[in-house]
Amino acid sequence: MRYLTLPAVCWLLVSCASPTPDWHGSPYEPAALAADFTLDDQFGRPFQLQSQAGKSTLLFFGYTNCPDVCPTTVADVNWVFHQLGERAERLTFAFVTIDPARDTPQVLQDYLAKFDPGFLGLSGDPALLEQIRSEYGIFAEIDPVAHGEHFLMTHTARVFLIDPHGLLQTSYSYGTPREEILLDLQALLKGG
After folding, report:
1. Regarding beta strands 120-122 and 91-97, do their DSSP bridges make them parallel or antiparallel, or are they unpaired?
2. pLDDT digits (tens, 9 = 90+) for 67-123
3. Which superfamily does 44-143+151-189 belong to?
4. Distances in Å between the alpha carbon of 160 and those of 33, 50, 73?
5. In the predicted model, what is the mean pLDDT of the chain?
6. What's the CA gap between 20 and 55, in Å, rounded?
7. How far apart are CA 36 and CA 76, in angstroms?
8. What is the pLDDT of residue 6?
9. For the chain, which residues make up each domain, given as ranges?
10. pLDDT per residue over 154-171, tens digit each?
């Protein structure tokens, strides 16, 4: 009977292990469990982040009256989804509003339908939204020079990549090339 030496066992274990992708953006080292939350989507259905087990999630905090950062980000995510083809079925895009007073369910539905009707627009009680933003390190406030109903907001613009196990793997700042996000998702969703 032949026995494997310790170096041979170590090589076998390393060669059989799934390699961890070299994430783009700002990787979490080590990956951290994403803060769970439950909000309502634009169709009035409850969405719980941890119930997405088995699917990956791209999570973004924004608002529909945003003139630049938000539509550009959602358009980039839409491009990524199209590039992924059928693999995108194992991916959820969740747009959490930072402006619940104006981003009603119908407004979120109309806005996201311009990009992809499968994208989710999430909202809820303002205090709960603030708590969720805090857990993800998202800053959001009304621009101090705002007037009346037509105001802009200053906010953190990051897209969070959460894997099928609910772990935050990386986040992307505004302006991250969409090709880099695509590479990460191709690595995460390979084999399916």
Report:
1. parallel
2. 999 999 999 999 999 999 999 999 999 999 999 999 999 999 999 999 999 999 999
3. Glutaredoxin (3.40.30.10)
4. 12, 14, 12
5. 89
6. 17
7. 25
8. 41
9. 44-143+151-189
10. 899 999 999 999 999 999
